Amino acid sequence: MAFWSKKHASRPEHRFDLSAATYASLENVSLKLGDRTVLDDVSVELQERRVGLIGLNGSGKSSLVRLLNGLRFPDSGTVRIFGAATTEVAPDLPRHVGFVFQNPDHQAIFPTVEEEIAFGLTQIGFDKKDARKGARAFLKLHDCDRLAELPFASLSEGQKQLICILAILVMEPQILVLDEPLTSLDGLASRLILKKLKSVEQRLVMISHDLSTLADFDRVLWLEDGKIRMDSVPGDVLPAYAADLDRRAAKAETGAHAL
Q1: What total of structural domains would you count in the chain?
Q2: pLDDT given at position 184
Q3: Which of 135, 147, 241, 256 gives a 20 to 30 Å CA spacing to 226?
Q4: What CATH code is carried by the domain that includes residue 62?
Q5: Alpha-carbon distance 1 to 62, whole Å?
Q6: What pTM was computed for the model?
Q7: Per-residue pLDDT tens for 207-223?
Q8: How far apart are CA 251 and CA 171, in angstroms?
Q9: What are phi and psi of 181, to 5 degrees?
Q10: Which of 249, 252, 231 has the alpha carbon at shortest distance from 240?
């Protein structure tokens, strides 16, 4: 979970224009990790409610979404959230941009489910007593109240991912960013989590290798070698990407070295 310093909880935030149609933008953004360029002069504006990202491993997807809530900052160019440059509003970004990791065990930090949800409420100004009460109510709202006292470690993978998503949603961010949230889940759990995600009012930006999960999104970005290769509606991008995968597989040699 990203931390939002409570010292900012009562401070007016005039730099974010929450009514802006463009909720996130990258302007000529480049990013290096070590000697490798992972994003190369990327420019894009996001306005659609649900945006998917696809591409091979190492294409720049995870780096791009981590720029949106300040887990990373660009080496050059500007990333804006609701018009505010992320480098200028870093402490406040987690309040507006929630981030869900691929592995829920890397996100949860408290021993019980109730504590995990309550922590999000303390981040937005609740005292501990009211946070615990609010956590119970929020879990009941999402039909998860029976999990409240359970150790997080005892949950199924699907339950873990759901609780991590709820721990972000309880803070009411405007944007929910998800980095392959369905990867470790079985077919039923994936469908249930996706159903939950499609029901929320937040804007979604989600990475997925399962193309079917993005079929009814509003827009899909296909990243390749740190650049946006294609940007359009799912009906255009997903078949093109699948065809490219088939072409690559047909040409590639077999064996571990080809993977």
Answers
A1: 1
A2: 85
A3: 256
A4: 3.40.50.300
A5: 16
A6: 0.90
A7: 999 999 999 999 999 99
A8: 47
A9: -70, -10
A10: 231
